[in-house]
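DNA-binding transcriptional regulator, XRE-family HTH domain: structure, please.
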Amino acid sequence: MSYFSEKLKSERQSRKFSQEYLAKKSGLGRRTIQDYEADKIAPTVKSFEKIVKGLGTTPADFLNSINKLPSSSILKEKNGWDSLTDDEKKKVLEYYTSISVESLSHVLRFDSSNSLAQIFTKKIVENGTNFIGNNLQKFRNEANLSREEFSKKCGIPTDEINKYELNKKAPTCELLGKIAKALNVDEIELIDGAIDSSKARTISSEEEYNLSKLKTYFYSASDEGQEKIVTYAEDLLKVPEYQRAPDQEEK
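Here you go.
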């Protein structure tokens, strides 16, 4: 189910509205509301605006009802939904009607100042929902891997890879990590589509093992625990003896 479908159902039920009542308030058909909640069809911008008006809220409040969503940055930068161009409104709406809550969960781990959230925001406005699939296909081709070969390497079925590359489906956070690892890039590079070769270096098997453990610890921690892990790491790197020397960098 898409984020939009689940959010619409949640907002309607929290107000104790029936589908028929919301349809009447929105000026839409009851079957249309049913199809939106069943994720059978996606609303147009005009229909979306009618729905949120029927709910007694605004597009910005509907999209920003969960903190830390990429839309928060977009709407803040553009001074609200009404300041977006028609094309930007369409792209923001396409994002939330195509991505699932599970797929969106990795974005919720970061605030709007984080580079990952900033990249998501920029890509949504520029490209709609196409950037992950396009970048996946680009990196796979650069690695000279067929979909079948890549499927075996990352452990994801070929038909799923095909859906990702055609932008028919977005990978979950866990699968995004598997895809990035199989392509020898990190998640941000996969989203952004560019690799900073000046910073690239070979990762040893020991480093890869330690990084894997660190990720496990990080994602097992609560929000407060994750913040402390980051703070501890930042404090640790302020100590000269724990900093990597320039001559240790592998090009």
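Notes: The mean pLDDT is 75.
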